[in-house]
Amino acid sequence: MSEFSRGVRLGVDVGQVRVGVSICDPGGILATPLVTLARDLTSADDAVPADLAELRRLVAEHEAVGVVVGLPVNLAGKHGPAAVHAVSYANRLADVIAPVPVTLTDERMSTVVASRRLAERGVRGKRQRAVVDQAAAVEILQSWLDAQRRRT
């Protein structure tokens, strides 16, 4: 078994309002939805926001060996405002969960793919909004896991 696949990892889809979180099995084969967290935009600059504190708790609870955060690169491959925001969030998360590594990965179209898959399963409207962030986090983590397997 290759080094990348050992241990549980969390996948994170960072949004302005919510953070979708997924988890993979210890073998690094399959990503599944875990939870959607509300973004805490009200905490003081020196305080750890509630969403980051919850991610720290999830990392500890599941003994995660890494966290994969989606980087929303635009279709031209450029980093827009959403990518800058995701990098900032990933850096803050890395500080909160150190020494557990945080990896950024291209998440182009993950929310679109997740929404489409949910709609194909009959999940629409308010029900879809409630889980689309988790589904996008699954897409992010599963794509990363698949890419790691292809490299070995």
Automatic annotation (TrEMBL):
The keyword Lyase does not apply. It comes from the Bacteria. Its EC number is 3.1.-.-. This is Putative pre-16S rRNA nuclease. The lineage of its organism: Bacteria, Bacillati, Actinomycetota, Actinomycetes, Micromonosporales. The gene is ruvX. Belongs to the YqgF HJR family. InterPro entries: RNaseH-like_sf, YqgF, YqgF/RNaseH-like_dom, YqgF/RNaseH-like_dom_sf. Transmembrane segments: none annotated. It comes from Micromonospora cathayae. NCBIfam families: RNAse_H_YqgF. Its main location: cytoplasm. The keyword Membrane does not apply. Residues 7-114 form the YqgF/RNase H-like domain. Keywords: Cytoplasm, Hydrolase, Nuclease, Ribosome biogenesis. Could be a nuclease involved in processing of the 5'-end of pre-16S rRNA.
